[in-house]
Amino acid sequence: MNGSLLLAINSVTLGGVLFLLAAGFSLIFGLMRIPNLMHGSFFMLGAYLSVSLLRAGANFWLAALVAAVAVSAIGGVVERFLLRRLAGQELAQVLVTLGLSFIVADLCLIVWTGDPIQIPAPTSLTGGTPIWGAFFPIYRLAVVVIAVVIAVVLWLMLERTRLGAMIRAGVDDAGMAQVCGIRVSRLFTIIFCLGAGLAGFGGVIGGPILSVYPGLDSDMLPLALIVVILGGAGSLPGALLGSIIVGTLYNFGLAMVPELAYVVLFLPMLLVLVLRPQGLLGGRAV
Amino acid sequence: MSRVLSTAVGILALASVPLLAGSDYYINITSQILISAILAIGLNLLVGYVRLMSLAHAALFGVACYGTAIMLKAGYGHLPSAIVAIIATMVTTSIVATLALRATGIGFLMITLACGQIVWGMAYRWISLTEGDNGINIAARPHVLGVSLASPISFYFLTLAVFAVAFVAVAILIASPFGASLRGTRDQPRRMAALGYNVWLIRFVAFLVSGFWAGVAGLLFVYYNQFVSPQVMALTTSAEALLMVIVGGAATLLGPFVGAVIVVVVKNVVSAYVVHWNMVLGSIFVVIMIFMPEGLVPGTARLLRRVRTPRIGVLVPEPPIEKKRAR
C-alpha cells in the first residue's frame, strides 16, 4: 500500500518535471509547426550549467534561474539566426534542430565528461516528511508545487494577457494572425526562448531526481514527444495531462517491469494515434 | 539500355576494389559503404520518392541485427536466424508504418522518432534478451554456397552481390507503374486519391519495402561486425542514413550510394583524428540544411553558379525542395 502511494507521488513528481519540458515543446510545436528535436538538449544543458554554477558556490535557486536564462538565450540565438533562415521549410528546420542536438550532446560530453552527476537538492528542502504513514522527501513535493505554479502562470499568460492572445492566434492560424498585424516571427523567437528556458529550468529542477548524464537528452526527448502526441500540440492543458500520464506510466512501468518501461509508454501512444490522432485535448492532428 | 550498361560497369568497378585496395582495411571500408548504401537505398524510397522522413530506420536496422544475434545465441543455425531476423524486421516495420502513416510530414517524422527511440530503449533495458549495453557477440560468419565468409574479401563479395540486387530491384521498382504511383502520391496525394488510388496503401507498401532493405542491411552489418549493441539503434544511425540520402540527393538512384560513400569516408577519416564524430555529423547536418537543402551534388552546382554569375543576372531563384507546407 505504502509502496504504491510512494510510486503515485513519485509519478506526479516526474509528471511535474516532464511538464516543464513538454509545455515549451508543445507551444513551439503548436506555433511553429516543428518538433524541436533539441528540446532534450536544452533540458540537459540546463542541468549541466547548474552543475557548474553550484560547483562555483551558487545557491540552488539562483543556479536554476541563471541556467534557465542562459539556455533561453541559446534558444533565442538558434531561432533567430538558424531556424529563421529556413522559414517555411519545416522539414529542414527539424533536421537543423536534430543536427544541433548532436553538437550539444558532444559539447556536453567534452565539458562535463561522461560520468553521471547527481545534483544535490537545496539544503532547505532535504529530508522528508511523513504523509499517511509513508516517509516522503520534501524536495519531490516542492517540485510538484513549482510545476503547478508554473502551469498556472503559463495558463494566465496565455489566457489573460495580450501576448497570450497573440500566441493563441498564432497557434490557431499563423497566416491569419500575420494578416491581422501580429508579428508572428517575433512570437516564434519569444516562444522558442520561453520553451528553451522552461526546459533548461526543468533540467535543473529534475537534476536531483534524475541526475545528469550523457544521453539524458535522448532519454527525455521521446518522453516530450509522447506527451505532445498524447496531449495534443499547442495545448497547455494537454501537455499537463500528457505529462502526468507519461510520468505515471513510466514510473509504474519502471517499478513493475523495469526492462520494458519504455514499451509501456508505447501503448497510450498507440491508442491515442489510432483513436484520437489530434491528441486528447488537441484541436488538430499532428 | 545505357542505364543497364552503366549499372553493370559500376558494379564491375566495385568488384575490382579488392584488386586495387592494398589492404583489408580498405576492403572493409568499402563493405561498410555498401552496407550503409543498402540502408540508404531503402530509406531513399521513403524520403525521396514518397517524401516521408523516417527516423525509425535505425530501429528497423537494429531489429534485424538483434534478431540474428539473439537467435544465434539461442543456438539456432545461420539460415533460420536470418529468416527470423527479417520476419521480425518486417513485423516491426508494419507496426511502425501503421502508426506513423496516421500522419504525414512532420507528424510522420515525430511518430517514427518516438517508435525508434522506444525500440532503442528496449534494446538498452531489456537486458535478459539483449544483454543491454554489453551487447551480443557473434562467434563466426556463415558459409554461403560452400564459401567461408570469414575473410574480408569473401564478405565483401557477398555484400556487393546483395547491394547489386538491392540497387537493381529498387531501380526496377521506381521505373514500374508502382514507382509512378509513388511519385504521384508524393506530388499530388489528393489528386491520386481522387483518381482512385489508395494513397495510404501505396505509402504503406513503400514503407514495407524500405524496411525490408533496412533489415537486409542490418543482417549484413551484424555479420560484418560480429557484434551488436544498442548503439546501432541510436538516433545517430537514423540521422546518418538520412544524411546519406540528403547529401547524395534524394529521389535519385545513385544519390544514396554517393551519400554513403561521403558519410562513411568522412566518418572514418574524422574518427581517426578526433573522437567527436557526433559533433561533425551534427555540423554537416546544419550546414547542409542551411546552405544546400537539395543535396550536396546539386547544391554545390547551384552555389558555384551563383558565384560565377553576377547577382543582377539571376531572375528566378531556384526554390528549395521542401517549400511545401507539411500538413
What does it look like?
The complex is a heterodimer of chains A (286) and B (327). Chain A has 286 residues and is mainly α. Chain A has helices spanning 2-32, 39-55, 60-82, 90-112, 138-160, 162-172, 174-179, 184-210, 216-231, 236-256, 261-275; strands at 128-131, 134-137. The relative contact order of chain A is 0.20. The mean pLDDT of chain A is 86. In chain A, helix 1 (2-32) crosses helix 6 (162-172) and helix 3 runs antiparallel to helix 8. In chain A, strand 1 and strand 2 (134-137) form a beta hairpin. The longest helix of chain A is centred in the N-terminal third of the chain and has 31 residues, at 2-32. Chain A contains 11 helices and 2 strands. Chain B has helices at 2-15, 17-20, 24-47, 57-73, 78-100, 105-125, 127-130, 152-175, 177-187, 189-194, 199-225, 235-248, 255-273, 277-291, 296-308; strands at residues 136-137, 143-144, 147-148, 227-228. In chain B, strand 2 (143-144) and strand 3 (147-148) form a beta hairpin. Chain B is globular, with a radius of gyration of 20 Å. At the A-B interface, helix 4, helix 9 and helix 11 of A face helix 6, helix 7, helix 12 and helix 14 of B.
Largest sheet of chain A: 2 strands, antiparallel
* N-end to C-end Cα span of chain A: 39 Å
| Overall mean pLDDT of chain A | 86
Query: Class by helix and strand content of chain A?
Result: mainly alpha
Q: Helix and strand succession of chain A? A: HHHHEEHHHHHHH
The number of helices of chain A is: 11
Strand order, sheet with most strands of chain B: 1-4
Quaternary structure = heterodimer
Q: How many strand segments of chain B?
A: 4
Rg of chain A from C-alpha positions?
A: 18 Å
Largest interface: A-B, 49 and 45 residues
- Roughly what fraction of the amino acids of chain A lie in strands? under 5%
Given helix and strand content, the structural type of chain B is: mainly alpha
Number of helix segments of chain B? 15
Tell me, what's the shape of chain B?
globular
Residues in β-strands, percent of chain B: under 5%
Shape of chain A: globular
First and last CA, distance of chain B: 40 Å
Count of beta strands of chain A: 2
Order of SSEs of chain B: HHHHHHHEEEHHHHEHHHH
- Strand numbers in spatial order across the main sheet of chain A: 1-2
